[in-house]
Amino acid sequence: MSDAQIEQILRIKEAFGDRLIIPAHHYQKPEIVALSDIIGDSYRLAVDVSRTDADYIVFCGVKFMAEGAAVLANEDQKVLLPRTDAICPMAEMIDSDRAEKAFAILSAVSDRPVVPIVYMNAHADMKAFCGKYGGSVCTSSNAQKVLTHYFDRGYSVFFFPDQHLGINTAKAMDLDEGDVRRLRRDYSLVPVYEGDTSDDQALIYVWDGFCPVHQEFGTDQIESLRASYPGIHIVVHPEVEKAVAEAADSTGSTQQIYNRVIESPAGSVWGIGTELHFVQRLAAEVADRGVTVYPLADRICKNMDKTDLGSLLAALQEAQAIEAGKPSSDLIVTVPAEVRELAAAALNKMIAIVEGA
What we know:
Elements: H1 3-16, E1 20-21, E2 23-25, H2 30-34, E3 38-40, H3 42-50, E4 56-58, H4 63-72, E5 78-80, H5 96-109, E6 114-119, H6 124-132, E7 136-138, H7 143-151, E8 156-160, H8 163-172, E9 180-183, E10 189-191, E11 204-207, H9 219-228, E12 233-236, H10 242-247, E13 250-251, H11 254-262, E14 269-273, H12 276-286, E15 292-295, H13 309-323, H14 337-355
Parallel strand pairs: 1-4, 2-3, 4-5, 6-7, 6-8, 8-11, 9-11, 12-13, 12-14, 14-15
Antiparallel strand pairs: 9-10
Helix pairs in contact: 1-13, 3-4, 4-14, 6-14, 11-12
């Protein structure tokens, strides 16, 4: 860690004042989180960033997050991404052509009207796709509420790109096993549950994308922690496979996990199945209260890990260059106007559903 870089970052932040903010996802390195103004999961960041008046938003996360900020930002606000190569592999598992073909297939198969719901971990064009067809964005913390909104109105849902969040949410909502179908990337429809012989009618059709980090958690890791620490509470992110979610004591979004552990009584012991940077930082925050936190396994999001002090400093220096009328890099994140309008409709639909507007 470079003290000189930290000093430079702090000087630039001070010079801009409230005209510049640094939002950071929970999975960022501890030194990045320490320099950030807003810290949260994808939902909190989407809402908080949409409400800022700052001229410059230096987003420490991955590309789809910065795109979401650009969609909700005012036209005169600049969104910068310190590492433009920080992508989300899950978001790369579907594109406009695939989404259109999948939606057409499901609309022809289903007896109910179908609406697309996209997990926040997707690019702006996929959010625009949902806006185009009257759908919404959702996050791991509000998927149940968004799905319920559409189920109550007679829709079936095309849920993408993460199959596991869709399946685990359906399970948490006590949907019948026959109400869930997986749409493979070859466009074949298959049951999710072993032994399910019902037809292709479903309430939720999940695309078969996944998070490479959360895909690596297994039931054997849960069993090992339970054997080593009797009484431990295991909580996992709902992007894990169904068997892992069922073996855990509870599931929760990153922010929900954070809140539960922060508010837990002294002496409690937790095993957490999500990204390692977050788990380690959380463990450090609660250690002085006598709360113990163990990672289910050491799994780092390689793309979140790309943002470091050097790239953050470069992004802040680029904000200075823009201010001087001399931009010098491609760190500014832009979204085409037609995509922005439709994506904003889907993002704002989510906020309206969740916030009760």
